[in-house]
Design a protein that fits this description.
Blueprint (H helix, E strand, L loop, with lengths): L8 H23 L4 H35 L4 H13 L4
Helix pairs in contact: 1-2
Length: 91
């Protein structure tokens, strides 16, 4: 398998490491008996970090890999690809 890297990958790793830190905090909070509200707030932070990492990865893939595969298209055939890329931002 060939190496597959994009400029966004370091940022994605940073987000995932942040999520990992939050997750470790959640585990420690549960083990120490912290209030549920505090735990829920930390879990929310974990979810947001992972969601943003996923969104960045998908958008980067579409912007680079899909474009590379599809190649240059005439404007009239390009609309569906552009709409697909736009709609995925709402995932």
């Amino acid at each position: 398998m060939t190496e597959h890297r994009h400029e966004s990958h370091p940022e994605i790793v940073k987000r995932l490491k942040r999520a990992e830190g939050h997750l470790k905090s959640v585990i420690a909070m549960i083990e120490s008996g912290r209030p549920c509200l505090d735990i829920a707030q930390q879990l929310h932070a974990v979810e947001k970090a992972i969601t943003q990492a996923k969104r960045t990865l998908i958008q980067d893939h579409l912007d680079h890999c899909l474009e590379e595969t599809v190649g240059a298209l005439p404007r009239d055939r390009r609309q569906s690809i552009d709409e697909f890329k736009s709609i995925t931002k709402y995932l």
